Amino acid sequence: MSQYGEIVENGLWKQNPGVVQLLGLCPTLAVTSTAVNGLSLGIATSLVMALSNASVSPVRKLVPDEIRIPVFILIIAALVTVVDLTMNAYFHPLYNVLGIFIPLIVTNCIVLARVEAFAAKNPVTPSALDGFVMGLGLTFVLTLLGAMREFVGKGTVLSGLDLVFGPEAKALVWQVIPDYPGFLLAILPPGAFIGLGLLIAGRNWVEQRRTAAQTVPPLVPSPSH
Amino acid sequence: MTRSPYLVEKTSVSIVMLKVLLALIPGVIAYVWVFGTGILITLALATVTAIVSEALVLKLRQRPVMPFLLDGSAVVTAWLLALSLPPLAPWWLIVLGTLFAIVVAKQLYGGLGYNPFNPAMVGYAVLLISFPVLMTQWPAPGVLAGAHLGFMDQLAYIFGRHLPAGVTLDAISSATPLDYLKTQLTLQHQVADITQSSIFGFMGAKGGEFVTAAYLLGGLYMWQQRIITWHIPVAFLGTLALMAGIFHLFDATQYASPQFHLFSRAAMLCAFFIATDPVSGPTTPNGKLIFAAGIAIITLMIRQYGGYPDGVAFAVLLMNLCVPLIDMYTQPRVFGHDK
Q1: Dihedral sign of CA atoms A153, A158, A161, A167 in order
Q2: Total number of domains in chain B
Q3: Span A80-95, average pLDDT
Q4: B134 and B28 share a domain?
Q5: Domain-located, residue A209
């Protein structure tokens, strides 16, 4: 597999930040009360990760080892400020919902982890790709978890779409079960933990079946008794 | 031919669980007498849900179904949850709580013997935080209710939320004393005045106190049968009474009497049936004392200062978290070894 293919596979499946590395749990658990929230924060994080990996990689040989962490954090913080201000300007209602979690992308350990583990050792193009794909992997998990919690908790799909696309998008919100009484647990923090646990279990189960299918030789059909 | 020693008592999980169910019978009878036959529907619904879901998950987990199903632990969980829920709760609430207790709190953690949290209390806590309105809607005990619901009426209400003509929800429901006490205290009333209300009985809630007394009876039977040791009930009830007594002595206008706390809501059920769960509780004698005292303190704090009327479920779950630590620090000295 080519180098880029491997990066993509790592980010999306093998080392998925959300369900394998379990990095950046704070936003994963806190903002995924709806699919739209999860998706939005995921995209913002991916953007920051791609940009920070791409900007750290060129200066990796100039930064002294001893002070690399503060330098990286400063670069990340500058990029997060850009994303933060952009979201505030163009998606203000959504910005209000996500609130403190946009600036907190700075402290999200997955961002620093990829900068430190990948961008500080690799050229610009693979670094940028790695950052973006890792962010994409996280985005998938955030969106899926958000969709699960939203569906179980409120009985809707894509509620809050109007925060992104304006009030007209409210018509697109799908109320799956009319008069749904709501299941508050899924919206509250315990729901996030349980949902994430189920996602991790699901991923491990798929992985187990895949490895089992690869390692076990095809069974000879046993003679019937 | 059998070999010595001959005096072997045949105990198995099934027998223990059967005796626990037997010990719950007086409580159920008192319940029926006070709140009507609806509880039997709730119990049946919870039992069926527990058995079916346990069997399905065991099959999914590729474990032997029958031996685990016959041990009866799922039924005990179902009964404890059903007895904690408000009678006349809608059917889906009962099914959902039982499913959560059995599938998530018990089987996903590895089944009987591996669950760190008391399954019935997990089910209860999930329902309480998810559906606070339904979970605090208690029917008035028979002696107080403005209208009486027969078995078929209760059945119709549990499954269809359908009340007979001319009966309103207000006619059959009332605030529980713990609830009432809390709201009235915030309105600057004094305990002595509040307890003059007709919903208070001799010691706890009117009607409800007989149910708790029946749990006490069942609990004593379990103790006599050596299914539970004295440690947890004594430490729980003792600490609850002692703490409530201190508060009561300190300011009788603001804090209810110890006997009120002992005979209200889930205290007796917790002391003998819930906190004594051998799986999620500690194993050492000293550990049991600490565990039960902790539950009592947290329960009382939630009752007096918390947002929920009763705190048993949360107290049990919080102390379940501490069990590994408690067990580690209360290991008895092994015979022949220094400390």
Answers
A1: negative
A2: 2
A3: 89
A4: yes
A5: no
**Partner-chain contact B129 A183, CB within 8 Å:** no
CA atoms lying within 13 Å on the CB side of residue A129 = 13
Which pLDDT band, with edges at 50, 70 and 90, does B209 fall under? confident
User: How many residues are given for chain A?
Assistant: 225
Give the model's pLDDT for residue B9. Answer: 59
Q: Report the residue of A152, A177, A185, A188 to disrupt the B interface, i.e. the one with the largest count of B CBs within 10 Å.
A: A185
The pair phi, psi for residue A27, each rounded to 5°, is -70, -35
Q: Which pairs count as long-range contacts for B66-69, CB under 8 Å and 24+ apart, including other chains?
A: B68/B111, B68/B112
Helix/strand/coil (H/E/C) assignment for every residue in A85-154:
HHHHHHCHHHHHHHHHHCHHHHHCHHHHHHHHHHHCCCCHHHHHHHHHHHHHHHHHHHHHHHHHHHHHHH
Q: Which residue of B has its CA nearest to A187?
A: B130
Whether residue B98 lies inside any domain: the answer is: yes
CB atoms within 10 A of CB B318: 15
Q: Which residue has the tokens 């670069």?
A: A75
Tell whether A26 is within 8 A of chain B (Cβ). no
Same structural domain for residues B182 and B92?
A: no
Please tell me the distance from the alpha carbon of residue A62 to that of residue B126, in angstroms, as a whole number. Answer: 54
Whether the pLDDT of residue B156 is over 80: the answer is: no
Greatest alpha-carbon span in chain B: 74
ipTM score: 0.74
In this complex, which of B104, B130, B131 lies closest to A194 when CB atoms are compared? Answer: B104
CA of B99 to nearest chain A CA: how many angstroms apart? 14
pLDDT at residue B130 greater than cutoff 60: yes
- Number of A/B CB contacts below 8 angstroms equals 13
- Which pTM does this prediction carry? 0.83
Q: How many CB atoms lie within 10 A of CB A70?
A: 10
Are B69 and B206 in the same domain?
no
Interface of A with B in 175-214 (CB under 8 A): 181-185, 188, 190, 194
- Among B131, B156, B174, which residue terminates a domain? B174
Examine the domain organization and report whether B190 and B161 are in the same domain: no
What is the domain extent for residue A65?
3-16+28-204
* Residue corresponding to tokens 């163009």: A90
B163: Cβ–Cβ under 8 A, 6 or more apart, which residues?
A: B149, B153, B156, B157, B169, B172
| Region of B111 on the Ramachandran plot (φ > 0 left; ψ -120 to 50 alpha; else beta) | left
Chain A residues near residue B131 by CB distance under 8 angstroms: 181, 184
Of B235, B90, B227, residue with least CA distance to B169: B90
Range of the domain at B326: 176-330
What are the CA-CA distances from residue B250 to residues A166, A186, B167 (Å)? Answer: 59, 42, 44
Choosing from B174, B198, B220, the residue where a domain stops is B174
Distance from C-alpha of A162 to C-alpha of A86, rounded to nearest angstrom: 18
